[in-house]
Amino acid sequence: MSILILGGGGMVGQKLARSLADHGLTGHEKSPVTLFDISFPETGAPGKQIRGSVTDPLALRRLAAARPEVIFHLASIVSGEAESDFELGWLTNMHSFWTLLEALRTEHLASGGRYRPRFVFTSSIAVFGGPYPDRIGDEFLSAPLTSYGAQKACNELMLTDFSRKGFVDGISIRLPTICVRPGKANKAASSFFSGIIREPLNGVEAILPVPDTVRHWHASPRAAVGFLRHAATMDLGQLHDRRALSMPGVSCTVAEQIEALRAIAGNNVVALIRSEPDETVQRIIEGWPRDFDTVRARKLGFAAESDFAEIIRIYLDDDLHRR
Amino acid sequence: MSILILGGGGMVGQKLARSLADHGLTGHEKSPVTLFDISFPETGAPGKQIRGSVTDPLALRRLAAARPEVIFHLASIVSGEAESDFELGWLTNMHSFWTLLEALRTEHLASGGRYRPRFVFTSSIAVFGGPYPDRIGDEFLSAPLTSYGAQKACNELMLTDFSRKGFVDGISIRLPTICVRPGKANKAASSFFSGIIREPLNGVEAILPVPDTVRHWHASPRAAVGFLRHAATMDLGQLHDRRALSMPGVSCTVAEQIEALRAIAGNNVVALIRSEPDETVQRIIEGWPRDFDTVRARKLGFAAESDFAEIIRIYLDDDLHRR
């Protein structure tokens, strides 16, 4: 079973590739994996690396022409960049997605309808915009407040329609904020959610830019890989024509994150978190979802952690203690 | 105030143009109106006619370069055609919409930000797909079951994002099924909703392809013109960033439609309706919304008829007795 990972050079893409190399996709066979991205880490996960951009239509057509049986689409420019560069955001995140779907439809038609790849798209909770109910249910509208969210929501609609027509067999999974991210802090407004756990555990001071009453929605990188694997192998007929769904996660406040860290690592580690309010970050975070009721996803077999302590322990196991 | 109507040759576009010629847009000035469409009726409404297709990027850029202050976008290929010709549907209904928005953004930027047109887009209740609640509220998700619905839903997302960024000042209004349509029956599955009223009132037999228990959501062409005029003149700041909304209408069963016709025109007219079940039409109609709770739109001043009898009387006044 040939597998293509778009965005295969990123954090989740690399963890997915490693998981596929270790366990295959269905558990009993090794699958040839192709990773497509603009860059890769130096000691990357196993797989055939192809360097390129999703904004290159010819590259996308070449990838489609190889007729991969499973496609994981994780590639996008991040929320902040899509917001500051309107044109680049829509081009990279939406129009390129259309180009890929069209290339796959061309292969479907050329194969006489036999080629119909499984297509797993990582959407985002950014498709939602406030005002929210206390918990966002499976029938709540997509009313994004960022270009990134609007692009993801358009892609969900396209993928559902291409799937309804039988050109591909697609599913859009809306990931929670992935926490604890290994490696360095990045410029995303959400970066501190990982930073306040990761930095202290590495003996480094971390900045907390928001009040500890802020509530947010998390899942571990390991849970994300689990979502992707399940989405690639489950029977999508169960979705009927609602092929976009919010993934399970852990809803907790920053104070609860910190208490979980204290229970696992002690007061001296927690003491490395320094509060330094940042109004810009606070304003962005205020617009974000806080909690979900993911009945559909759980019924369909998707599972995340049950509390934030588990999320921290996964970071210790999979990243910190593995180095 | 210069006005552009895309799809100005269609039934609603023509009624809108006539209303603008009679009353202006704001009630105290006559506005130059440009109508863009692939064809126009022989004795058309007043306005400068430009023949062309929305699939012609150069034509769209020319229209944008004239910097109309108000744009009504009514142009699309219909639901049935978008379903049978996948490629043409997405090209005409979605990609062309993007091309127009980009052309307007170019004018916005070239004007140093001064040009920011009001943009009224006629979306559709086809953005919704079952299973439905008894009444569809303002926070129910868009999960379309047709390509046409998916294209309209994408356009709503794009228009909201272009508006949030300040390039245009847009609103998407989801029209109910427009009834009673004057003129001849067309191939739309919804055609009979008008046909069973219009044909008998003109002394002609009409076919009813569904059981009279079928419930649906209607508004008159006069109400549609009212929605468009209100959408073009109201303060859109009230919408915050939820710029797509379902319009008010009348929810009634086919039996209630027929009883309203009987009360207005008598038994002999009703006797011209002949039941002839059509399973294909029945299956399509079963997937359609039946009722809405349009709290937001009503609060914002949009109004439709209060019962189906009123819809019939509007057909008599505006179309049948005017000929």
Automatic annotation (TrEMBL), chains A, B:
Signal peptide: none annotated. It comes from the Bacteria. The keyword Ion transport does not apply. Residues 3-204 form the NAD-dependent epimerase/dehydratase domain. One of its GO terms (molecular function) is oxidoreductase activity. The keyword Translocase does not apply. This is Nucleoside-diphosphate-sugar epimerase.
